[in-house]
Amino acid sequence: MDAPFPSPLYIFAAWRRRTTNPKSPPTKFKMPSFSWKSLLPGCFSETTAAGERRKKSQPAARRVAAGTSPQRISFSDLSNSSTPLSPQDLSLSLVGADLHIFSLEELKTVTRGFSTSNFIGEGGFGPVYKGFIDEELRPGLRPQAVAVKLLDLQGSQGHKEWLAEVIFLGQLRHPNLVKLIGYCYEDEHRLLVYEYMSKGSLENRLFKKVIAVLPWLTRLKIAVGAAKGLTFLHEAEKPVIYRDFKASNILLDTDYKAKLSDFGLAKDGPQGDDTHVTTRVMGTHGYAAPEYIMTGHLTAKSDVFSFGVVLLELLTGRRAVDKNRPSRQRNLVEWAKHYLCNPHKLDRIIDPALEGQYSTKGVEKAAALAYQCLAHSPKSRPNMRTVVETLEPLLELRDIPMGPFIFTVGGPGETEKNEGDDEEMAERKENSRRNMQRRQRHKARLLQSSVCTDTELYRAQRNRSI
């Protein structure tokens, strides 16, 4: 039982005795455990409730800005606010995110008035232009190339997707996530400023093959980098489900390091006892998990399925959906999945452009992993941490057959969007030179052969030129 609360006179006498005679032993008494709320119940409940009501009545941005918690702001905290988020509230919400707020005029200067010569590409969000920023534009800015993305007011994505990009990429920092440098929120204009990724998207590098075929180890490096980005999102203190993982959203820097971009469809993941997030089905046909399409239930395992599709694209060199192929081969997963678990049939689906220049063991293990990621039941799929641990050791395998790697160059009229880049042009010329040398060597071997007839020589040369 707790001791009675000491009287004020008792406390004063003990303090007085201690100050006048420092050598006297201290007076010991035990402070009882009590609550002021329990002693005065009518004085606190109404004020506390009133404080909570005032807190809830404030705009979400101001509540977050006033708080001292270092936790990441949830997208739902801002997007579900009853009042539209003003530019001032958004900047207050992202205090400490190290984002620059640009004016429209500044970004016009950066991109030379959004010149067509600076045009990089266009997606569901809107057009993207290359630019350059430095300290002359804004003190403290590191001189660097940037990509400026404009919201197309007539496009399929709107302000909410733009806000999601700012909220998620403004706070999330990881080597395998593209860096958001700043944004513009001025009148009806919505723009985003990212670091420039010189090699473009995985989609362009893998499927358009204008410059060169991606070697096996480069494909594996890209898969590992993208997997690490997803792992970071899924294991964050407040988990994030990417929801739109696909080849066009994986950007590559000069060293082919993969970085995830376009967080317009990202969602805060389930927390506590929740097992999933129920949301409207959105994404890209061919990449979405079957349970998400059927029920709208979104989990981290939905991202794992999408990763399996991209890994299958890297293995086969085929798009997730290709309407130009025969009907049975248009959906990549439906066509190739049953080959993945059979090592003896893998050569039927492996990208022929690799021409056998890959690790047999690495391909078999990557194919088996893709098969697990594409499991119909989410519980049967691995988590992204396991995916990274499975793929990383494959980079060390060196059972790759030695031989010349054949580069392929596009025909007349096939050029890349960013052809003006000097580095890209130099790479293209070098690959063209190598390709010409290969053809000359092949022609010389044919002419030196004593068993080739004129007809056979003509056919061989014609087949090589097709």
UniProtKB/TrEMBL annotation:
GO CC, alphabetical: plasma membrane
Compositionally skewed regions (Polar residues) per UniProt: 68-84
PROSITE patterns: PROTEIN_KINASE_DOM, PROTEIN_KINASE_ST
Protein name per its UniProtKB record: non-specific serine/threonine protein kinase
CDD domains reported for this sequence: STKc_IRAK
UniProt record similarity statement: Belongs to the protein kinase superfamily. Ser/Thr protein kinase family.
Compositional bias of kind Basic residues: 435-445
GO molecular function: ATP binding; protein serine/threonine kinase activity
